[in-house]
Input
Amino acid sequence: MPVRVRYADTDRMGVVYYGNYPAFFEVARSEYIRRKGYTYRELEEMGYLLVVVGLEAKYYNSATYDDVLTVRTRMTELRSRGMTFHYEVTLDGTLLVEGKTKHICINAENRKPVALPQNIVEILRDGRST
Output
């Protein structure tokens, strides 16, 4: 998933602010699910929400305004009530940031953890990277 660094993504030193990488993760994760044939919106319309319950990031190098980053996403864990995604952000093949997010599925009505719908599990089971 290509992500072009906007001026607003940078800090006073001219590099991507570290807190913006999770937003890049989100863009890539949404596209990952879309490429599997489903969208977050469709999941929400079914009454389910995916909540981030964990986030990790390791920073190795920096990016600057107008760089075109590549964010690779893969699912590393799929359980009945949640999943974990792994991310690699690169620039011209150089690893900048590596991260992961852990999610649980909740019922939109009462905000309680629930099992993922079986059709979603089947769609996500194919763990290829995007």
